[in-house]
Design brief:
heterotrimer, A alpha/beta, B mainly alpha, C alpha/beta, A: alpha/beta, Peroxisomal Thiolase, Chain A, domain 1, 2 domains, two-stranded antiparallel ribbon, 14 strands, 30% helix, C: alpha/beta, 11-stranded mixed β-sheet, 13 helices, globular, Actinorhodin polyketide synthase (chain B), Ppantetheine_attach_site (chain B)
């Protein structure tokens, strides 16, 4: 009756032979305050922000004019010429981040060119800049002016497809959309594939919609900061919180089963120990938001009591009511001032599907270097929040367990618990 | 149709570069008229993108069979010249 | 103990019929719903045909504010979700909200609304610096299609894991796989999931024209979608949605639910080859099929029906024939393999779920839907493609395959006889 399995890979609905630990062995960062993992990390520890006035287009006519742009990115320095006409800016960033992550992991053809190696990315906006150009061609010149590449360059699955092709990965792939919460959900889905039998997953998220059309769509939420002062525009948990700044970029991670990673001598940054996703009740419901349930679910999944958590990387919406809701959830789980909380995204802006993965990367680098990076632009959190927000200088403290939170527009909540490796990874020279 | 709209191999190469990028280890300025697109590293979408830009620039239209037939820049050039001649003939 | 996942509710919005009953009427009778595009003037396009839904949101029960807020794809999903919930007999208000999840697939999300609004904020393509003052309040929800999953979650009161799955043309199968995974791993007991797409808009037509993927058989729209036929010349765009209620088996049995089928196997692979191209050997799709069958513990010879991707492009149908031969071996030729895209077109991300819905209905009725328009089979597509007329036969174990841009290759295996209450094979 049974055919048996003829290859060693996946099955997300299957019984899954392994429940082993999923470890991160490679990190690739493309962020507004640093192109490359160590560049980003150094800037973050210096408290150096990538938020400034938009340069991609003239933002003068828009109510919001600041953004976290990845400056100085020359795609032809990172990618073959052939890929450029067919890719949106955000796909070029994603491919670059994936290359960095794969290189960092030391994964070669043996690990990548198999049915056990897959890609799961998150997306929020797809290739919107490419899409705007082609819509403009269509509506200003005519339908015959639309590029053949529009058939795939803008859609939400493009980064997963291009990363799998560039790296020859033939295993289980996926694309998750849950706005800003999707980045963590994608990494959780990659872990699910490892549990189903895959051996290596490239995962995370990179987003950008910093074109006029994407900007117009983002402005429609009414949640973007309208400040022109990069130091005051995005101040999560401060009493000056007045909206968020949008950015571009994110992080791509290489996730492997611990067995596979150790067998090939890779050095894990840490492991994905737990995850849970929840959704808020409909607007107007008497029931409160479901962020606390996500936190508790992730801790339970990690078999981790709240007291073991050393640091929380907050979602940090930068809006008074949402900051208050997040602070309340943290108080309920950890007690007032119960755990160090930080929001390095105050230096990059909110990166949509890239935000969660970048926070994961930051937490893992924090394990490595025994430090919690600060929340920029905030001197003191609003005392009403009663949270221990890390501000000013980085806080030198060894962390072994981190909780990363992300919330997406519409009510998405995602929480992920990371653990430091048993043998600490030392900083790269 | 004016005289300067006669298509040359250089126009094809320029359109290929713009539509699908430069290849690794391929000299597009070399003698490539009879080298297949796939040997030059251009896939079917790259060829379609190139043909689209030529069609718009020169005001002709290639049918599906003609595109299938165009396996090299030289063949594409010949089909494009035939098609533009057709357009010019109609316009005359 | 392994948790098993069954489908207990079904809702459909499809070309040719709104609701599962009308949908089955189209498929069982081999009727085609492809026609000249009526929703906008497509006269300048190479391919001017599509399978459109005759969908009137007011009649389907949506409120004026829902209609204003939701893109057409979200409207389809909402209406299909309502039908699936009612069909399941499950009282969602009585369920613990945090144990209910949502998994909705879509390839192009709210593209129709995005294009409509782009035309306004750009003033018909005249302004590159689009004017935010003309942006509608829900513009961001059109940009990010997690809004579609959110709409479904609000309707059913889901507070567990909620995701949109967007893997292009395999979204509809992958969303089914994702829903089953959430239940199987214990993250949820009930998931409302499936897929939706409403891609029939100028920008979508234009980009498929540019790659000459859609059929230009404009003079005979009703017979334009010809999977496996020698004269096939591209796919015909479609639209629609199919949503399901997925339930943990014991949860369903305890309440005596009608069970359509068990989601017994799911697997996906990538061809790592090309964003639109397919390798002719179909190796990765074959691998996905083999893995899904293995999980389901169904042997190739036990399959009663294969619902093929069968898009009707030259390339796909050869690729898929090779993949089915490679994965089913000697049974490839003796198993019915049909493509319902011949009747309802290719609705991108939605089609995988519409095909799963077709499989469930085929199981229930003991009838394999045909491949319409198949008069002159391509000698290279030499499987039993059930031409023109539906075939009566018991359908207990089925396979549905999908293939999409980005290299995604997916397979779902469903089992159970689907005819009696809880009458699932042990």
């Amino acid at each position: 009756m049974s055919t048996g399995r003829t290859d060693s890979t996946t099955d997300t609905t299957g019984t899954g032979s392994t429940t082993g630990t999923a470890v991160v062995t490679g990190i690739g960062v493309v962020a507004p305050n640093g192109l490359g993992t160590e560049e980003y990390w150094a800037a973050t520890l210096r408290g150096e922000s990538g938020i400034r006035r938009l340069t991609r287009f003239d933002p003068a006519q828009y109510p919001s004019r600041l953004a976290g742009e990845v400056l100085g990115f020359d795609p032809s320095a990172h990618l073959p010429d052939r890929l450029l006409p067919q890719t949106d800016h955000m796909t070029r960033l994603a491919l670059t981040a994936a290359d960095l992550a794969v290189l960092d992991a030391g994964a070669g053809p043996e690990e990548l060119h198999t049915l056990g190696a897959g890609v799961v990315t998150a997306s929020a906006s797809g290739g919107f800049e490419f899409g705007q150009r082609e819509l403009e061609n269509l509506w200003s010149k005519g339908n015959e002016y639309v590029s053949a590449y529009q058939s795939f360059a803008w859609f939400y699955a493009v980064n997963t497809g291009q990363i799998s092709i560039r790296n020859g990965m033939r295993g289980p792939s996926g694309v998750i959309v849950a706005d800003q919460a999707g980045g963590l959900d994608a990494v959780a889905h990659a872990r699910r594939q490892l549990r189903g039998g895959a051996s290596l997953m490239v995962t995370g998220g990179v987003d950008s919609s910093l074109c006029p059309w994407g900007w117009t769509a983002q402005i429609a939420t009414g949640l973007l900061s309208t400040s022109d002062d990069p130091a005051r525009a995005y101040t999560p948990f401060a009493d000056t919180a007045n909206g968020y700044v949008a950015g571009e970029g994110g992080a791509i991670l290489v996730l492997e089963t611990e067995e596979a990673a150790l067998a090939r001598g890779a050095r894990p940054y840490g492991s994905v120990a737990g995850h849970a996703a929840t959704f808020d009740p409909p607007p107007g419901s008497s029931r409160g938001p479901a962020l606390r349930a996500a936190i508790l679910g992730a801790l339970a999944d990690a078999d981790c009591p709240p007291g073991d958590v050393d640091v929380v990387y907050a979602d940090a919406a930068g809006l008074p009511d949402k900051d208050a809701a997040e602070a309340a959830a943290l108080r309920e789980v950890f007690g007032p001032h119960g755990v160090p909380v930080t929001a390095p995204k105050s230096m990059t802006g909110r990166l949509y599907s890239g935000g969660g993965p970048l926070d994961l990367a930051t937490a893992l680098l924090g394990f490595r270097d025994g430090v919690i990076p600060p929340t920029a632009n905030v001197t003191l959190p609003d005392p009403a929040h009663r949270i221990d927000l890390v501000t000013g200088e980085p806080r030198a403290v060894a962390t072994r367990t981190a909780l990363v939170l992300a919330r997406g527009h519409g009510g998405f909540n995602s929480a992920m618990v990371l653990r430091a490796p048993a043998a600490p990874r030392t900083p790269s020279p | 149709m004016s005289v300067q709209q006669i298509i040359t191999l250089q126009d094809i190469v320029r359109a290929l570069r713009a539509a699908a990028g430069e290849g690794d280890g391929v000299d597009l300025d070399g003698d490539i008229a009879d080298v297949t697109f796939s040997e030059l590293g251009y896939d079917s979408i790259a060829v379609l993108e190139t043909v689209g830009s030529l069609e718009r620039a020169y005001g002709f239209s290639l049918g599906d069979e003609a595109i299938q037939e165009a396996q090299t820049p030289g063949q594409l050039l010949r089909l494009a010249i035939e098609a533009t001649a057709g357009v010019a003939g109609l316009a005359a | 103990m392994t948790r098993r996942v069954v489908i207990t509710g079904l809702g459909v919005v499809a070309p040719g019929g709104i609701g599962a009953k009308a949908y089955w009427d189209v498929l069982a009778n081999g009727r085609t719903a492809t026609r000249a595009i009526s929703s906008f003037d497509a006269s300048r396009y190479r391919s001017r045909i599509a399978a459109e839904c005759d969908f009137r949101p007011e009649e389907a029960g949506l409120t004026p504010q829902e209609i204003r807020r939701m893109d057409r794809a979200a409207q389809f999903a909402a209406v299909a979700a309502d039908e699936a919930v009612a069909d399941s007999g499950l009282l969602f208000a009585d369920l613990p909200p945090h144990r209910t999840g949502v998994s909705v697939g879509t390839a192009v999300g709210c593209t129709t609304s995005l294009e409509r609004e782009y035309v306004v904020v750009s003033d018909g393509g005249r302004q590159t610096l689009t004017d935010h003052r003309y942006g509608v309040p829900h513009l961001y929800d059109y940009l990010v299609p997690s809004s579609v999953a959110a709409e479904v979650a609000w309707r059913v009161g889901a507070e567990g894991p909620v995701n949109t799955v967007s893997t292009g043309c395999t979204s509809g199968l992958d969303a089914v796989g994702h829903a089953a995974a959430l239940i199987r791993e214990g993250s949820a007991d009930v998931v409302v999931g499936g897929a939706t797409d409403a891609p029939i808009s100028p920008i979508t037509l234009a980009c498929f024209d540019a790659i000459r993927a859609t059929s230009p058989r404009n003079d005979d729209p009703a017979h334009a979608s010809r999977p496996f036929d020698r004269s096939r010349n591209g796919f015909v765009l479609g639209e629609g949605a199919a949503l399901f209620v997925f339930e943990e088996l014991e949860h369903a049995r305890r309440r005596g639910a009608h069970i359509y089928a068990e989601v017994a196997g799911f697997a996906t692979r990538s061809n790592a080859y090309h964003m639109t191209g397919l390798r002719s050997d179909g190796a990765e799709l074959a691998q996905a099929v083999t893995a899904a069958l293995g999980q389901a513990r169904v042997a190739p010879g036990d399959l009663d029906y294969v619902n093929a991707h069968g898009s009707g492009t030259k390339q796909n149908d050869l690729h898929e024939t090779a993949a089915i031969k490679a994965s089913l071996g000697e049974h490839a030729r003796t198993t019915p393999v049909s493509s319902i895209k011949s009747m309802i077109g290719h609705s991108l991300g939605a089609i995988g779920s519409l095909e799963v819905a077709a499989c469930l209905l085929a199981m229930r009725h003991g009838l394999v839907p045909p491949t319409a328009n198949l008069h002159d089979p391509d000698p290279k597509c030499d499987l039993d493609h059930v031409p023109l007329t539906a075939r009566e036969t018991p359908v207990r174990s089925v396979l549905s395959t999908g293939s999409g841009f980005g290299g995604f290759q997916s397979a779902v295996v469903l089992t159970g006889n689907g005819t009696e209450k809880g009458g699932l094979a042990q």
